[in-house]
Amino acid sequence: MEKLLEFKNISKYFPGVKALDDVSFDLYPGEVHVIVGENGAGKSTLMKVLSGAYTADSGQIVLQGKVIEKNSPKVSEEMGISMIYQELNLVPELSIASNIFLGHEIKKGIFVDKKAQKKRADELLKDVGIHIDSNTLVKNLGVGTQQMVEIVKALSKNAKVIVFDEPTSSLTESEIQELFRIIGLLKSRGVGMFYISHRLEELFEIGNRVTVMRDGKHILTDDIKNMNMSQIIEGIAGRTIDNLYPHTRKQPGEVLFEIKNLCGAKFQDVSMKVRAGEIVGVSGLVGAGRTETVRAAFGIDKYTSGEVYIMGKKVPPGKPDAAAKMGLCLLPEDRKLEGLALSLNIRENSVISSLKLLYPSGIINDKLEKEKVQGYIDQLEIATSTQEKLTKFLSGGTQQKVVIAKWLLSQSKVFIFDEPTRGIDVGAKSSIYQLMDQLVEEGAAILMISSDMPEIFGMSDRIQVMSGGRVVGEVDKDEVDQNMVLHLAFSNV
Ligand SMILES: Nc1ncnc2c1ncn2[C@@H]1O[C@H](COP(=O)(O)OP(=O)(O)OP(=O)(O)O)[C@@H](O)[C@H]1O
Ligand SMILES: [Mg+2]
Q1: Does 170 contact ligand 1 (Cβ within 6 A)?
Q2: How far apart are the two ends of the chain, measured CA to CA in Å?
Q3: How far is CA 199 from the centre of its chain?
Q4: Does residue 86's CB lie within 6 angstroms of at least one atom of ligand 1?
Q5: How far apart are alpha carbons 156 and 184 in whole angstroms?
Q6: Contact assessment for residue 137 and residue 174, using Cβ atoms and an 8 Å cutoff
Q7: pLDDT, tens only, 440-466
Q8: How confident is the model over 141-175, as pLDDT tens digits?
Q9: Rounded to the nearest whole angstrom, what is the distance from the C-alpha of residue 454 to the centroid of ligand 2?
Q10: At what angle do helices 396-409 and 426-441 cross, to 10 degrees?
Q11: pTM of the model
Q12: How crowded is residue 251: how many other Cβ atoms within 10 Å of its Cβ?
């Protein structure tokens, strides 16, 4: 079969890093080619070179036998290359149809032919089995459906190559299945796809071939059927990981954290307790009210009634600083928006919330600060040559690791982790799980929201299931059953 696309010896430098180092591999029509690798390996950079957002320093991209000259976002789009990013690029106030044809409108004379656009959009949606009126405004759609609209938009431009960069990180289980159905459909129509993900179980579900990248280099490309999970993990991390979920049940101590009958706009009557030495998982579908509950408990958002206690003391509502002082910390779901000051460097971000702790005397000790931060850089395998690198230049997953380092440095007693390993590579996941286990071993309490089922089952002592803003069930580690949790998660929607 003729190759659809080929990367030939692509290299790309950024100040201080060789983000891509002589990378070559290819894509066939009707293939799902999965690209995996640790945070900062160069996956997104390579795709940005393909989309024309970045210019390679050397190397070529060959599409159907022809070298793409002077690539740019416009050129690549015209050649049939489309990107589906995790942060979706739709205009919320416009309809599905207007979004699909944004930038390549169907015209009648000089005017946009809305009627024709609506008709064509409806056809395109129907064609991929999505039954929704294309006059619907995008702001009224869930994340999963918005992503479908992006895919349909790509199809409206006759995409031959579609790139998915971590597409499932904010999708629900059923949305993921819907995405996979459509990917299967595109495959049967000969579209070639690159698929980047840190959720390794997905590879085996939809991938034909896999490419592993590390430190900007191409490590291997092979048929997925020739590979097993541990070989892939070894390729990514450069080492074997025997036990990804190291957590064992500790003897639980006193209740350190309690949410009591908390009510707010998106959650009703939520009660949860976490004891010292315990990891309590919070499972549920995206939109179940989990993030809203913990944000309110921490004091970022309002709640209308109920109480929150840390070590028996009432946490004042609406005061995150006070909550932090009392020993609570929240690792937010949206790290980019809430967790990092992008114009500050790694070290500054890491120590920002623990300055008082590091320097009780008020005198800043540069050396100590650097040592502490370096400890976490090493442990979390933060891909950077220096602590002074501005966080805005880090890869998505590396930014997340910095936020985690920041909270670990704060030495809290109660940790709320909201999707702690979303977008994080498998090597660092393993370190984060070890750190979590160590924290509870030392007597901390952890409440962990996660949509990653293996993580919930692997790390929690108890699982609280939320649905429609309420706690609908509690399951113990020893009696967990994935079906039961899923059944509960769907119970109230
Ligand atoms: N605009 C930029 N300026 C400077 N350095 C950059 C820039 N974009 C990326 N980098 C660096 O290039 C390297 C590769 O980053 P890239 O985003 O491609 O990684 P990735 O494999 O997509 O990682 P992740 O899994 O975390 O998304 C990293 O070291 C990153 O810090
Ligand atoms: Mg990336």
Answers
A1: no
A2: 46
A3: 9
A4: no
A5: 18
A6: no
A7: 999 999 999 998 888 998 999 999 999
A8: 887 888 889 999 999 998 999 999 998 887 877 88
A9: 22
A10: 10
A11: 0.84
A12: 8
